[in-house]
Amino acid sequence: MSHPAPLSSAERRAISYANTLHLLVSHIFKQREGADRVLANYFREHKKHGSKDRKLIRETLFGLFRWWGWLKNLPAADDANANIEDSGFSSGLGEAHSPRWFTQLSLVAAIENHQWQDIRSGWLSQANLSQLEIPAFGDTPENLNIICAALIKQFGGEFAPPNLLPDWAWEHISVAGSDKLAFVDALCRRPPLWTRAQGTSREQVLKQLEADDIGAVPSKVFADAIELASQSINLDAVTAYTSGKLEVQDLASQAIGEVAAPKAGERWWDACAGAGGKSLQLFSLMQKRGGVGELVASDIRPKALEELLRRADKAGVAPIQLSPWRSDKLPVKADYFDGVLVDAPCSCTGTWRRNPDMRWIDDASAILDKPALQLDILRRASAAVRSGGVLVYATCSLARAENEAVVEAFLASDEDFELDTTAHPFSGEHCAVMTLWPQQANADGMFVARMRRR
């Protein structure tokens, strides 16, 4: 009687990684909890993992969600126990020791061209596949079609780029046909690390980064924006960051401040300030243009405002006034501000390249349960705008229901406000209502509308 050959050390490690990843993915789908938080908790509880282990687990985990729209459609004929639950969230997730699961892991490693060859070989062996003829993700959107063709050739079935987003998303996110492939391509790429010079010139920050041997590329779009070359950089070892001269802020988020365009000496209110990224940017823009008049930040979350003060103190920013929302009553003076920014809570579909898991653990309710709240916040905040002042509405959503529809409903109910045309930060087109698409500037997706009180 023959016995199976003993597993090699690499094969045992490959199986161990596979078990860990299956545990994490199953938890994320079942609990509908964000991958970042789940992974952070796991590493906190399992100190045994070194930096190489963490890198492999992290990159594979997020890769699984980037390509889940294809992975879940793999044929399950070789896996009688394939988990295809009615809930739909984990539909297509193979059992932990099944060939299907190891095929899914092998595909992620092949498409993203992971470097750990011994682990890739171990997964391929457990998938009962002699070879995997799937090309790596290339530099152009057309490469997605090439990968689809290879998947169909090897596995049969149907694979197409739009599958990489859930069907419900396409019902709410309207992308021109000619841009759809580029949009999907952008969402499947790892996001860059965008930063911004704070309280000093970009040239000075670039010199400090060079002294710390950190690669950086100045943005061609905004005078303060800097892209850091490494996505896995330890910011606590970056002098410019620890001294408050470098703020982490995505390029699309920076575009909101540029559309607001605060002038020297003006009074501005950040009505949904959160941890203060845009508040600090508004301060910086006014400072560069001649001086800050008055800047007030509000939020319903005390801890977020505490973080804002910490960041402001680190950056050496003069006091930003805090005025928390404590009730439905306006927390600031009415008819007072030259500009009001409403960065409203939203579905965050524009951050899906940064959080690919959210595509699959959210559903349409993430979009549909927000517009009423967004419109209510916008109406309340608008009361603080003085005659002739500016009202800026923004979200990190790409869904019309949270964006254009909210602005249209607001303008229909308040004749004191009208659209105020400005230049699109990325395209240069003159408009008042604009979507910032991920494929336009290698950034998150956002929406912004600029209005003015008559």
Automatic annotation (TrEMBL):
Pfam families: Methyltr_RsmB-F. GO terms for cellular component: cytosol. The keyword Iron does not apply. Coiled coil: none annotated. S-adenosyl-L-methionine binds at residues 299, 343. Keywords: Methyltransferase, RNA-binding, S-adenosyl-L-methionine, Transferase. Residues 181-454 form the SAM-dependent MTase RsmB/NOP-type domain. The active site is at residue 396. The keyword Transferase applies. GO terms for molecular function: RNA binding; rRNA (cytosine-C5-)-methyltransferase activity. It comes from the Bacteria. Belongs to the class I-like SAM-binding methyltransferase superfamily. RsmB/NOP family. This is Fmu (Sun). It comes from Shewanella amazonensis (strain ATCC BAA-1098 / SB2B). The lineage of its organism: Bacteria, Pseudomonadati, Pseudomonadota, Gammaproteobacteria, Alteromonadales.
